Amino acid sequence: MPATRARRRLRWLACRAIAWGICLGALLSAVGIAFRGIEAHARGALAEWRARRASPDGELLAMVRTPLPDLPLAPGTVVEQPLWASHDGFCGVRFEAGALAGAVPTSGEIIWRIVATDVPAGAKRRLATGTLDLGAARDTGWFDVRFPPLPTSAGARYVLKLLVPAEFAAPTPSLALYTSPEGRPTPVITGPTPETPPTTFPLGTALHLRLIYAAPPDQSP
Amino acid sequence: MSAMSPSRRGAGATLAELVVEHVWDVLRGPSFRFVAATAAAFVVFFARAPGPWVNPVFFAEDRDWTTLLVTHGFWHTAFHARPDYAVLGNVAVLWGGMRLCDLAGDDVLSIPRYQALVSYFAFALVVSLPVLLLRRRLRPGALAAVWLLAVSMPLGIHSGSWSGYEILGRANNVGFAALFVAFLLVWVRLTTHLRPARAAVIDAGLATCVLTNPIATALLPVAAWPALRRLAPVRDRAGLRTAALAIVRDPAVWTLAAAVLACLAGNGIPTAVAHGDRTALAPPMPFDRAIECGLARSLFYSLSWPVYRWLNTDRTVALAALALWLTWRFGLPRHRWLYAGGLGLLALTSATLVFKRPELAAHLGDYRTTFPDRYFYAQYLVGLPLMAAFATDLGTRLAARPRLARLPLVALFALAALAVVLEPPGKIADSQFIVDDDGCFSRSAARAVALGAWRGADGKPAADGAFVGIPAHPSMPKEILLPRAAVERAITAVGASRTPPVLTAAAPATSPR
């Protein structure tokens, strides 16, 4: 009889829906438990990786791969390297010297500046400046620029400017260059004369840079 | 729905007993097997590459296409994100992530995490499709081997390259999988009695694949074979008229025609377009790199990956020739069309990479590295059901010796076990953290709002812009555009300061010039 058949059909559908609900519920629960377990394990691995990576050398700005010929700093040249701070307390830049670092005279100095680029019109752009003794790289192979920490530097864009005085004596210093994955900020070179057109590098060329941040101040009362 | 068995489901059974029987029915059914396979694959892929979830970053095209989704909507992004072809599948993953983020009630800055979830699900669905679509074409053991090999597919996750970071959990490289899905759909279409509804679903799937990966266009004429072969026995005009009428009256022909029209409307007439300056300026691929790219990495990667580092040009050619001879010699005649079609598709893909992407030669490491794995994982997946079919054929040929007959399938499972050993899912590779967010995106968003970095839909600064431009990450300078109101709400919710940043610093001790 049609009514009995319809009732049986409804009961079949209801039982099938309940069965699917039970099976899917069990499956989703298992997936959820596994997901949370893997997530906890992954967060632990991330914390461990950050601890391993944290070093007095600072945060690596550009992953580097194969070495390229050094970048010579002829007298009168200006190197502008875009930087992007990821944390507050940005207080220094360390960059790798080229092969000539051991040969430069200890009296050689170049000027460095940290300039902010994403500021409103009229705001101060030059944040810090100083001189760099090139002979200091002889032992470590790295040049080191330090300045007082910038308290709200997280997400901010800067440029590191290196100015080689026109009267600088030979031999000229150099910076190490590497290939790097595309999209990393590449340096721009101007000079040695005002008429010389600026040199930009192909995508994937990078100085070997580390950005250094000051530890956050102790905020306990 | 399965037929009811009166002896089991009689009037006297209680509701609980009935439900228990139905539960067993569901568990044994192909639909639940597919759902369970997808769920398991989702967990495995998340375990292999959890980086995009625990350390979310708007990465590469995911950033650019999310910007387009926010500013121009779904359909514009799907058909105009790239100038040369549509990327419907990729954009669907990104859009799905954005909707999931909404549903979860999370803020707009968390979008990349949910896009990662949808990506894991998409990959899981793709590798589990053979469980559903090939269940009447391959034996259960062979299907299980295909699934295991697919979830453990070598992706270079532990190689220290970007491969571990840029495939699983991302949307920009999901599109390559459309080639594998199209291959499965065509296989089913050619071996099934096509009822109108089933043909419509398969052809809609094919159109989606072509509108995601243009190489799948090559499969559309193959999909038309069941109709075209009606013309084969035609000898005279009357026969031609009869065959033509039969073709025109076949609903499956109309659904395929609709799919082809959709592909033409979406992608246009296929033309060879240089993939940007890198392709246009790159020299032709050297012969050795062409063999590595075309044969070892593309055509035979599902066979060559265990011995990849041992290969060179001569060995690759020898291995390829041996594999071809073995397939033709020992594969059963009923599968020869499958081998020819699958290898033909792989050869077409290989040729496309060798001749149209010569800049890849700079990345190939002379068999020392498998980077860039993203261009080759789809070919690996296509090779798997071919290997499973071949293993089944060998088993059939050795039917008289049952112990030997099981060996080909055992070899497939051993291969899967080796893949798990080489890229263990439980071990988290450093490649997951190549780009470390560490809260940077939130801070950048707060700064962008504080500085008033408003943008119009075109990305240019606009005082009354409805979007805000936020750098995705310090190491990736391009901005992503997100809705201004949503970002402001998110920043307020996390309590980030909105006061303008301090832009000056005291001069250091050394005297400036």
Please describe what this structure looks like:
The complex is a heterodimer of chains A (221) and B (513). Chain A has 221 residues and is an alpha+beta fold. Helices cover 25% and strands 33% of the residues of chain A. In chain A, the strands form 3 sheets. A 6-stranded antiparallel beta sheet of chain A has the order 6-5-8-3-10-11, with no helix packed on it. In chain A, strands 1-13-4-7 form a 4-stranded antiparallel beta sheet. Chain A has a 3-stranded antiparallel beta sheet with strand order 2-9-12, with no helix packed on it. In chain A, strand 10 and strand 11 form a beta hairpin. The mean pLDDT of chain A is 78. Among the domains of chain B are: 142 residues, no CATH class; 124 residues, no CATH class; 55 residues, no CATH class. The N terminus and C terminus of chain B are likely disordered. At the A-B interface, helix 1, strand 5, strand 6 and strand 7 of A face helix 1, helix 2, helix 3, helix 23 and strand 3 of B.
Following the backbone from N to C, one meets helices and strands of chain B in this order, namely HHHHHHHHHHHHHHHHHHHHHHHEEEH
Strand runs of chain A, count: 13
Averaged pLDDT of chain A? 78
Mean pLDDT value of chain B:
87
What's the CATH architecture name of the largest domain in chain A?
Answer: Sandwich
Residue share in helix of chain A: 25-40%
Number of helices of chain A: 2
Q: N-to-C terminal Cα separation of chain B, in Å?
A: 85 Å
Radius of gyration of chain B: 26 Å
Short description:
The complex is a heterodimer of chains A (221) and B (513). By secondary structure, chain A is of the alpha+beta class. Chain A contains two helices and 13 strands, in the order αββββββαβββββββ.
Write the layout of secondary structure elements.
The complex is a heterodimer of chains A (221) and B (513).
Chain A: H1 2-53, E1 59-60, E2 67-72, E3 78-84, E4 90-96, E5 109-116, E6 126-133, H2 137-140, E7 142-150, E8 157-163, E9 174-179, E10 188-190, E11 199-200, E12 205-207, E13 209-213
Antiparallel strand pairs in A: 1-13, 2-9, 3-8, 3-10, 4-7, 4-13, 5-6, 5-8, 9-12, 10-11
Chain B: H1 15-28, H2 30-48, H3 51-54, H4 61-72, H5 74-80, H6 88-103, H7 111-133, H8 140-151, H9 163-166, H10 177-190, H11 196-210, H12 219-223, H13 225-228, H14 237-249, H15 251-267, H16 276-281, H17 287-299, H18 301-304, H19 313-330, H20 336-356, H21 377-397, H22 402-422, H23 440-451, E1 454-455, E2 467-473, E3 476-483, H24 484-494
Antiparallel strand pairs in B: 1-2, 2-3
Helix pairs in contact in B: 2-7, 4-5, 5-6, 6-7, 7-8, 7-10, 8-21, 8-22, 10-11, 10-21, 11-15, 17-19, 17-20, 20-21, 21-22, 23-24
